[in-house]
Structures are given as structure tokens and as C-alpha cells.
């Protein structure tokens, strides 16, 4: 096995036995990136020099007897998470030259345990999208079929990981942006409970929905990453002050008697038949493992899409007001007055989808429409949350497809925003309810990966990881690799 | 819900977003379609339902009133296209 093919836990074992060095491991992954990234285009910025420097330090520390939880493990970071001194573009012209003066808290925590940072990965501009096609720079290609999207918005992180251009990665998930690309690229991704991971240094999109989440080649790697980044942060007043369990301890493949709910709304019209088959087969695996399966209902599921596409743009329109050509680099100052400079800077600095959402959100918040759209959506959000509260009284986890289809063709949905939004129809409601959810591979349709989504209640990550681990141990999907050499 | 060009232009002005004629028409059509889709929310009677702004049971979060290190001024200004004497520089806001 080549070094870049290792999972994090496999690499840690070899590092601890001194069979490999962090420098060799990091160099192998950097070589892999050189070999494949011209085709995949997962990375926006690469930092090979600092990565090798961090790897050398990790080797020194290990030689001196240290053993951090991720000491010497090379990671990819979505380009909306700040790394001090490294450009953080958010896939946008307007932040093209922005260099953050500080690390995001998740990065500080990863540094603390010795992680190595390979670079920043592509995303839909400001994390708004489901395909990376909204990146201002280029579209990332799905390693399973280069003519298809990797999903989004964390498509760069997911694609990089699926083709061994990193051992692990961070993404962010506002309405499915970790889970959907994880599903479409055949890897594992978690959206933690809202507040479980600090948002400090994550560039804000929709503040009541955003969460940083780990992506891994398998469930154990996701647990290792979550262990490090979870926890309370005084810099983020919405982070939860709740104890962080050792998520590794959740990984035992015993789910006998666990109550697994199957919401009937997750198998409605629009789901690709092969996706439904793969997910039904996955549910049968859980039955065979001794779980109690029951049908349930989340009756307001169909309203999640309109609620999300009113609330997320409304919050985005406020968050993105800060990009005015005064503070962050990109600026078109040649206008007669400051208002003209704002208008021109924002017109040329933002791409089409970001402008569409700013317009939609501004409209939903504007005088005369606030009650009909924004307030109405917030009330329906309450109903969506209550659906989950009721379901979790009966069930420990809920399962279904992550996305209604496998990866779609580049260009297929880019001119039809509503069709694109439907790609996230099963992942939006977990963000609206603030609960946790995970996607992992459960089969293939036409040679493309299908994702299985396991949702748990707030702070239910251990149960979600346990079910995912049990399923993964009973199947082999996570061992398949895309046809890229 | 069909938007007029004037409504689209009004919203763009609220958002301080310049739009070309073509963009104005594209967004008029697309936003109309999205808002029409969103109208399914009207089917639900929500008169007695409280709104959810955040899923967290938080009210105010206070920290101890103790001085701590903060971002140096030069670092805070480092990304500014134009800065002078420790301030962000902007065009005149008020006319003389």
C-alpha cells in the first residue's frame, strides 16, 4: 500500500511504531497531489513548504517522545476556514487577496495536536452551492467520473480525500455542504450538532446554521478529527458548553436493540431508483445487525427547502454586507462616491449565485415582506424542529439517503437554481433543527457512490458514529477507490 | 409572486449591489420562481407557532470583564486596499 492511501488511524499506527516518518507521509501526499490535481482541481492554494516544515517538527516532537492525537497527519482545509498567513478566498473574487491574521479555533486545535496543513480546498463561493461550480476560480471534478461534479459546497475537500490527496479534511455544512459532497465522492462526512464545533474563524454564511465538520476516509477517521475540533470556545458565544466525550469509544460494532427510524418522506418523488435500492439494502444490513427498524414521519420535510432558501439567504445578506471594498482587498474605488464604490465592488466581486442569494435574502428581510417570508420561515423552522423532537422520542437515529441522486454532470443544473437546490433536499432540515448527521458510502449506481445519511438528536454524535461504524464494519463500500491512478 | 423590474432594482439598492440590465431581468425571473415555490409555506397555519431564530437555549452570553490581548492595529489594517494613519480610508460620505 502506498503512503497516501493510508487512513489517519493506519498512518498513526505506523508513525507510532516509527515505521514511517511524518515527512515521508507528507511528501507522499504532496507527490500524489502533483500527480492527480491537474485533473481533479481540488486545491485552491497549496502550502508544501510549510506542510513539510510542520511535518519535520512533528517528527522531532515524536522523536522526543511526544504523541499528539494527529501528530504528523496531513490534512486539507476548506478555503472558508482561516489559516493565519494563508490566503482564504472562500472561492470568491472579493476575498481573492485576503490573508487572515489569525487561525480559526478548529485550526488552532488541530495545530495543538500536531496536524500538518497541505493547503486550502475549493468550494462554491461563500459555501453557497452543491457542486463547486459556483467557485470564482474553477470547478472541482469528481474522481469517480471527471465529467461530474464532486458535490458541494465542500467539494474540494471531499474530492481531495476520495483520491488520497489528503488523509483527512475539514469542511463546513450549512445545509448539507459536508454530507452531500461526502456522499457524491464516496467518503464519510459529519455535520456536528450546532454549537459542537466553534465557528470562530469560519467565514460566516448563515450564522444560525453553519457548522465546521470533518471528512474522513472512514468512520474512525471522522471520530478522530471530531475529537480534536469539538468543544466550547469563548470566542464563539454560540458554541456549546457541554462535555466532549471520547468519540473513539463510540466505535463498537454492536447495535442490537438500537431503534432506527426511517422517515417515509425521505423516499418520495425525485429519488433516483438505484439510490433508493442502495439505501434500502443498507437499512437491511442494520436489521441483520439486530437494530429495531420502524417507519416514522417528519411531516414538514417538504417545507425545509423553502424555509432554508429564505432563512439562509437572509442571514447571508446581512453577513455579506461587510464586503464593501474597504476592509478585505478587492475594491473598485473609481466611482464618484462611496455608494457607487460599494455597488461596483460588490457587482464585480461577487458571482451569480452569491448575488442571487443576497437579493433573495434582502427581499425576505425588506419592509412589507418580513412577516410574509422571513418570520413565516422562522415559524415553520419551529415545526421542522418539532418533527425531529417527536421522532427522537421513539428512535435513537433516523436514516435515509444523503442526496436524491448520485453525482450529476458538470453544467447540468447550473442554469436552474431550484433544481440545484433540490440536491440538498434531505440534508437541509438537520441544519434547521440544529441536530447532527453523518453520511457514509452505502453502494454504487452506474459506478458512482451513493451516500447513506444517519441523523441523531442534538449532541447525539456518539450514537450516530456507533451506527455508522457498525454498518461500515459489516460492508466494504468504504474500501473502494475511484478509477484514478 | 411575480416581481417587477422596479422591485428588483429596489432590492439591489438596499443591498448596495450594482446589477446590469441583463442581471436585473435574470434575477427578476429566478427570484419570482423561487418565491413562487416558497409560497407553499402559506398552506401552514402558523399563528400559534413561535419563531425559531436559533436552536440554542441561549440568552445573553457574558464573559469576565478582563483585558486580554487583541489584534494589533497593523494586522487589522493589513488587508485594507487603502489605509491612512491607522484607519481604513474611504471616499467622502458627506458632501461639503
Task: Describe it.
The complex is a heterodimer of chains A (485) and B (96). Chain A has 485 residues and is an alpha/beta fold. Helix content of chain A is 38%, strand content 13%. Chain A has helices at residues 8-16, 22-40, 48-63, 105-112, 155-162, 179-185, 219-229, 273-288, 304-319, 338-349, 352-365, 370-394, 417-421, 428-433, 461-474, and strands at 43-46, 74-78, 116-121, 168-173, 188-191, 211-216, 259-263, 292-296, 397-401, 436-445, 448-456. An eleven-stranded mixed beta sheet of chain A has the order 1-3-2-4-6-5-10-11-9-7-8, sandwiched between helices. The radius of gyration of chain A is 21 Å and the shape is globular. Chain B is mainly alpha-helical. Chain B has three helices and two strands. Chain B has helices spanning 5-14, 21-38, 73-77; strands at 83-84, 87-88. Chain B has a two-stranded antiparallel ribbon. In chain B, strand 1 and strand 2 form a beta hairpin. Chain B is flat. The model of chain B has no long low-confidence stretch (mean pLDDT 92). The chains are: A alpha/beta (485), B mainly alpha (96). At the A-B interface, helix 9, helix 10, helix 11 and helix 12 of A face helix 1 and helix 2 of B.
Architecture blueprint of SSEs:
The complex is a heterodimer of chains A (485) and B (96).
Chain A: H1 8-16, H2 22-40, E1 43-46, H3 48-63, E2 74-78, H4 105-112, E3 116-121, H5 155-162, E4 168-173, H6 179-185, E5 188-191, E6 211-216, H7 219-229, E7 259-263, H8 273-288, E8 292-296, H9 304-319, H10 338-349, H11 352-365, H12 370-394, E9 397-401, H13 417-421, H14 428-433, E10 436-445, E11 448-456, H15 461-474
Helix pairs in contact in A: 2-3, 5-6, 9-11, 9-12
Chain B: H1 5-14, H2 21-38, H3 73-77, E1 83-84, E2 87-88
Antiparallel strand pairs in B: 1-2
Helix pairs in contact in B: 1-2
